[in-house]
Amino acid sequence: MNSLTLPVALAGILVVVSLIGVPPYPLHIMIVIMIWSFTYTGWSLMGRFGLVSLGHGAFMGMGAYVTALLWNYGGLTPWLGIPIALCAAALLAVIVGYPCFKFKITGHYFALVTLALTEVVRQTVIATRDHTGGSLGFTPTPKGNDGASSLMSLQFDDKETYFLIAVGVWLVGLMIWRMIDRSMMRYALEAIGEDEDSAAAAGINVTREKLKITVLSAVMTAFGGIMYLQYQLFISPDTVGGIGISLQIVFAVVAGGIYTQLGPTFGAVVTLLLAEILRVYIGTDAVGLDNAIYGIALVLFIIFLPRGLLGSLEARLFGRT
User: Fold this and answer.
1) What does the pLDDT look like over 221-253, one tens digit per residue?
2) Domain-by-domain residue ranges, the chain?
3) pLDDT tens-digit profile of 250-264?
4) 70 sits in which H/E element
């Protein structure tokens, strides 16, 4: 399932369906699934090689907040703000990743470092509430409804436009995943995952290879946060930067299949539909229930289905191990 044929065909079907006409609510769900699918795919680039990060909520929040703050306070169009936000996320990944990889902080220690990173970013947003809105959230300044201002602000009135953009971004994410899967970087990272010392002895620059995939993953996740911002026009520490978001990303990828191209997308469908069902039928009667379910399900998946739902199905159908 590492070919782009199926994703392209699926994207074509989705585009046709959206052009024919989809009610606003189902279209909204589809847009959100596409955005999160791209974000989950970004995390899987690291996770599949044993680099388990519990801090990708920090990168997602970095992308969203930098873009929004530059727009509101600097009047900087997202066309310029987005590259700056992605560079900020990349720099944060280097600042955190380089010392960890240089001094061989791996496994659960690396996971704890990234987990702390998420909380640092979250608390920074809350502490600077005068500018970021703190825990109450932040809303980008809306612009006019004419085509020119909508294009400059990347704020559109119709969901169909957002959906077409989201589908395109999702396909780009799958293309990146496939490029990594077919590159020499994959073999280098697999060797590093098996034995860092042996990989280094074979001539692989361990720190550089791990840092490259970390920066790429962080940038993709940050862009996912930007997509969420531009579509929802509202962000808060709990929606794009909290520990809950980081754990949600890990669970979705593990549930869908961390080693298969469409695994993160499948995980997005499962987790987001589950969250929506809980929201509709339970509402606010059991706050945090979705996170509790995610946690329990994550443990069960790791024990019984380590390749995830789609990964296990692929292994059964094609006899892959």
Assistant:
1) 999 999 999 999 999 998 888 888 888 898 899
2) 5-237
3) 889 988 989 899 999
4) helix 56-74
